[in-house]
Design goal:
The protein is of the alpha/beta class. It has 16 helices and eight strands. It has two domains: 4-169, NAD(P)-binding Rossmann-like Domain (Rossmann fold), CATH 3.40.50.720; 178-365, N-(1-d-carboxylethyl)-l-norvaline Dehydrogenase, domain 2. Helix 1 links the parallel strand 1 and strand 2 (27-32).
Amino acid sequence: MNRHILIAGSGKMARDIGFYFVRRGHRVTWASQSHERLVALGDWFRKAVRRATRVDPDFVPAETRFRVASDMRAEPVDMLIECTVEDIATKQAFLHAIRGVVSDNTLLVSNSSSILPQEIHPDCLGFHCYYPLELTRFAEIIVPSNAPASRRSRILDFAAENGLECIEEDNDSAFIVNRLLLPVHAECFRLLLSGIHPVLIDAATVSPLSSVGQLSLMDAIGLGLIHASAVRYLDRMPHDEIWPYAPLLEGLERALPLGKRGIKTGNGLLCGALFTEIITPPPDDDSPALAKRFLYLLVNTCYDALDRNAITERGLSLSLGALLASEQRLSQVVEAEGRERIRETLDRLYRETRLPYFQPARRFGNMT
């Protein structure tokens, strides 16, 4: 069934999500607060259509429009996907500007990666898609516990009809996919601030569970967004559980004033001038041990999420594939490395650092 989808926003994710649904025959309208951004979006769209027709000569997009938010008029909209910058006030202001096109029948969802949907609007659900959607085909669906069952069914049915694999979350488990990386990113910055070269850290975070280095990933996402998201995730943690993540916030808050935003500006953790005094190589040049540290930490974080029922085995496999392009399942990595070896290494790291994210997860206690 073809629908009319309104994309609120004109940035990278708004373009990516909108074009995904254009390719599936839906009518798509992009709305922006800026006429200049709409002009750039239109140029991008025409190029995207040309690329798509080279792959599929029969591809003809359904009706597609670009509208300045303040000029929009009431018309039937089946779904509004909010894709503006990661700021509550901006999101709320944008939705207020286009409130005239939203009816009781419009399904309102947000692509936010860290803001709970009901913080944006009481009727909003989360629809956090992973870039590029054409390749990942993956989204986190966030359904607050008080949301009507009919609204939940509509978003799940819509995702399934459009070939998307999804995991469903509530407010407590929201954004669990990104939150899996918090301990890894905190450890990256702890070592970075201690003087280990970022290239070595980035290489050490590549593993069978992650085809991409974590500093490279942060540069690609954007350090400003990483910081804003981390602050929100940590704000929802119990106060006494926040301290292990201090290096993550400290490192980002030192980097951002230096103009370090990531690859978009050509100045990030791996590009542009370094922002810490570097000691190269790490002590004893123990790069293999550094790689095991990060792999076992990610295993432990995944185990902990499973122990807390924050994610299912299926959801974890989908998440690691979409976010990190993992080459193996978690169970395969644990079997190859050895549960006892992983547990012993984690236990040693925990005793050395007292960092809770190294404390072996409960299921490591089920040793045979």
